[in-house]
Amino acid sequence: MKPEDIPLGYYTHINFAFASIDPSSFTIAPMASDVAALYGGVTGLKSSQPGLQVWISIGGWAFNDPGPTRSTFSDLVGSSSAQEAFFSSLISFMSHNGFDGVDLDWQVSPIPWQDIVFCSRYPGNIPLRLSALASQRTIRITCRSSRPSDRRWMEVARNSVFQSQ
After folding, report:
1. pTM more than 0.90
2. What is d(CA 32, CA 36) in angstroms, rounded to the nearest whole number?
């Protein structure tokens, strides 16, 4: 669907899915080469519908399929320099493209115990890092553990993040 084909007046939020994280530099990148050209068209819809929020979703289910991005979220957790690169890139990306919020969508970790580490350590940096943005941004984090016994901890981690906003 082209941005101009999105019917307005029905939605309060649009999530643009998906952007990627470069697994080497930990910077935000379009999921495909033709996607970046659509960012401005979608965020530009806000001029026709005041109050509309447009968010970028990063990651997603396919992000954890076998391939170069499979361990990107886990690798991000384990490296302060990777987190610094990611947050700097995220702030720049959102500001440059006019996104109002971000949905960090880590569906399944190839290293299940690190889901808990990600959800308890990494998101705590997000409000601090995003405070550098001139306007208010909204954050949603999806962490789905690959082990049912970890899901209880995911909920605790998610709730603590939302309470800190």
Report:
1. no
2. 8
Task: Output Rg (C-alpha) for the chain, integer angstroms.
Answer: 16
Residue pLDDT, tens place only, 67-79: 999 888 878 767 7
* Pair type for strands 13-21 and 28-30: antiparallel
**Domains of the chain in sequence order:** 3-163 (3.20.20.80)
Taking the CB of residue 126, how many other CB atoms lie within 10 A of it?
A: 20
> What six digits make up the tokens of 114?
């690190």
Return d(Cα 71, Cα 119) in angstroms, integer: 15
Categorise residue 9: left if φ over 0, alpha if ψ from -120 to 50, beta otherwise: left
> pLDDT, tens digit, for every residue of 64-123?
788 999 888 878 767 778 888 988 899 899 989 999 888 888 776 555 555 455 555 554
